[in-house]
Every structure is written in structure tokens, then in C-alpha cells.
Amino acid sequence: MYDLPGVLDGARSVPPGTNLLVASHDEQENRDRILDALATGIRDGEGAVVITTDLPASQIVEALEARVSFEPRLLTIVDCSGEQTETTAEDLFVYTVASPTELTATGIGVVECFDQLSQRGVDRCRVGLLSLSSMVGKSGEAEIFKFSHVVSSRLDSAGFLGLFAIDTDEVDTQSFQIISEAFDDTV
Questions:
Q1: Do the domain assignments include residue 26?
Q2: Which of 12, 10, 7 is nearest to 39 (CA)?
Q3: Which structural domain range is residue 162 located in?
Q4: By CB atoms within 10 Å of each CB, which of 32, 39, 159, 182 scores lowest?
Q5: Is the pTM of this model over 0.85?
């Protein structure tokens, strides 16, 4: 089971392979809920993959360091923000993708992150995607549904936890409904 204090309403944990769509009208709230869940896992020695579409890797590292002290070997990042930044952590793996519209490259980055964590002896992992909203605006709901379905299927097969943020003010109702079908539940 994966513990999720403060992320789920009511439930405190979910089984391996669960993929959740974290939805609200507040992008920062979504980001905080997911980063809190990743920090909980890191604190317990689990690996974390962060897919960031709007913040550079350095800001993700700072946000996690503010929540928990951790070994950089437990964190990997797929940075799709398009911003070039350096991080000071030695063992931190960052896979850079030029834009959140490059879905194939983003998927390859996720697989590379899994490989890095596996090589480091990490067998439990939480994945947080921040945020699907910016991807939908650039790629459309059909493409994002396919991408989300492929990634969530990989997470399910591996027994990992997936948390995907979406700002409900940034996508229309039809797009939200289509995308939400790729996930086990919406919180």
C-alpha cells in the first residue's frame, strides 16, 4: 500500500498500481498535494519521478527539499518546462524534454527515470505529473488521454503510484471527462 496523508479525501492509502487524477480549480493546490505525497514516499525510502511541464527541475528540487530531507538518488525528474536550469544535487537524474507537447520524448524520459531508480536499487516509486492542464492546451484531449493511458498502464504494471495534476479551470468539461477515463479515480 502507498500512504497518502492529506492527498485523498477519507482514504489514507491506496494499493500499488493506482493512478489518480488530482483535480481542483487551483494549480498550486494540486502541485502541493502531489509534492506532499511524493515527499511522504521519499521519507519512507521510495523513489520519486516528477514530470514537470511548467517549473524547471531546480524549483521542483527546492519544493521537495522544503518538505523533506532526502538522498538525491531517490529523485528523478523529467523536465518539460523548456527552461534550462542547473541543480546542485550530485546524484539527481534530470531528463530534459524541450516542450510538454513532445509526448513521446516525455514517455521516454519516464522510462529512463524508472531505469535510473532501478539501477539505484529502488523498487517502489511514486510518479507525479505537474500538470496535464498545460499539456492539454497544447496537444488536445485525445492525445493527452492516450499519453495518460500509456503512462498509467506502465505504472500499474510496475506496481507504482501515479498522481497526475489537472486544473479544472484550464480545461473544458468534455476534455476533463475524456482525460479522467485514463485514471482509477479523481481526487
A1: no
A2: 7
A3: 47-131+151-166
A4: 159
A5: yes
